[in-house]
Amino acid sequence: MKTTISEVGKYVDQSVTIGAWLANKRSSGKIAFLQLRDGTGFIQGVVVKAEVEEDIFKLAKELTQESSLYVTGKVREDDRAPSGYELTVESVEVIQMAEDYPITPKEHGTEFLMDHRHLWLRSRKQHAIMKIRNEIIRATYEFFNEQGFTKIDPPILTGSSAEGTTNLFHTKYFDEDAYLSQSGQLYMEAAAMAFGKVFSFGPTFRAEKSKTRRHLIEFWMIEPEMAFMDHDESLVLQENYVSFVVQAVLQNCKLELKTLERDTATLEKISAPFPRISYDEAISFLQKEGYEIEWGEDFGAPHETAIAEAHEKPVFITNYPKDIKAFYMKPHPERDDVVLCADLIAPEGYGEIIGGSQRIDDAELMKQRYAEHNLSEDAYKWYLDLRKYGTVPHSGFGLGLERTVAWISGTEHVRETIPFPRLLNRLYP
């Protein structure tokens, strides 16, 4: 019976064949222990000299790291094994004997591992992080599908900026200027006016020369947009979504969290509602804590970490100053100096994972914002049309996938939360 490591529990006390790679091995006289992986998981294969033909045992002792194999053996329950199962090997067929695999069980520097990212992905910890990333994506689709959202795919090549900034990757689009998208939001607003509730999931690009552990040049975002929804209703959706994703990982990635030695006690507390503080309250708190920050300044990593440490759950910071936020954010109804927006700050120093707001729905106010931000009315005519033809109150947000993976998996640097990271000085492999 041919199967995978993740499915061996169905075949206890039966012989199965698994296509696998040798992650590691050790031998103790008359027994060889093969650490096998097949992409679905890891399992130990035990080769007992007295129970197999002589050439099989000799072959098992000669196997090299990352050699590819077909391994046949009997599935045994073993409470000591991480997966709960072990394989008593009966035969081994070599597909290819690997030579001089560069990533050995010894310590390697970060740059070396990043240069060999195409191979580093095979390791237990990197495998666990990617499985958690996959579960977050799966749970995201489940959540929004259950909430009646339609997935819409915005373009990656655009003729203008979503945020009105200069941190864009420029390219030529035949005879026109074009940019790699920094957000699908504006297009998602158009989609929301057609479908009511929509979400996108795709790559975004920021040409920021940043080297922090929270930044990537290319990263993936989940961007929902909702017609007929105000800012407070959007916050409820956001906290329910994040809670759903965290609980899904706790339920479906127990082995991966254990592999990463993640303290799940903090994750188990993540359930809606989340605390909310205003930007004004955040500034006062930071000043009392001794930080030199004035009203009107944006928060940096140390500020966000200090605020997060005062709460057990993710915390919303609401109503930022208009001058430090994007042009499309709706003004607060009682104050003209702040907007209806919020950033969601993850616990444990992982920073902002969501940015969201209620969008301006008044055409005249939007034209005023165009003028204030020196935005071309020609380039943004289509965006203004959304306010001219059946405008409604609407809100949306964007969740950064890699930062969310980093937080939930307990991974220090976002470069390990995406299969092939693009960093300031890294475009290889």
How would you characterize this protein structure?
This protein has helices at 54-62, 110-115, 117-120, 124-146, 185-195, 231-252, 254-259, 265-268, 279-288, 301-309, 363-372, 381-388, 401-409; strands spanning 15-28, 31-37, 42-48, 68-77, 85-96, 150-151, 157-158, 170-173, 176-180, 197-205, 218-227, 276-278, 315-318, 331-332, 335-339, 341-346, 351-358, 394-400. Helix 4 (124-146) crosses helix 6 (231-252). The mean pLDDT is 96. It starts with 14 loop residues before the first strand and ends in a 20-residue tail after the last helix. The longest helix has 23 residues, at 124-146. It has 13 helices and 18 strands. Strand 16 and strand 17 (351-358) form a beta hairpin. It folds into 2 domains: 5-96, Nucleic acid-binding proteins (OB fold (Dihydrolipoamide Acetyltransferase, E2P), Beta Barrel); 117-416, BirA Bifunctional Protein, domain 2 (2-Layer Sandwich), CATH 3.30.930.10. It is elongated, with a radius of gyration of 26 Å.
Per CATH, the class of the largest domain reads: Alpha Beta
CATH H-level homologous superfamily name of the largest domain: Bira Bifunctional Protein, Domain 2
Helix content: 25-40%
Mean pLDDT reading: 96
Shape: elongated
Which spans have pLDDT < 50 for at least 5 consecutive residues?
Answer: none
The DSSP helix count reads 13
Q: Approximately what portion of the residues adopt beta-strand conformation?
A: 25-35%
Q: Tell me the strand order in the biggest sheet.
A: 6-10-11-18-17-16-13-12
Remind me, CATH topology of the largest domain? BirA Bifunctional Protein, domain 2
Using only C-alpha atoms, the radius of gyration works out to 26 Å
Coarse structural class: alpha+beta
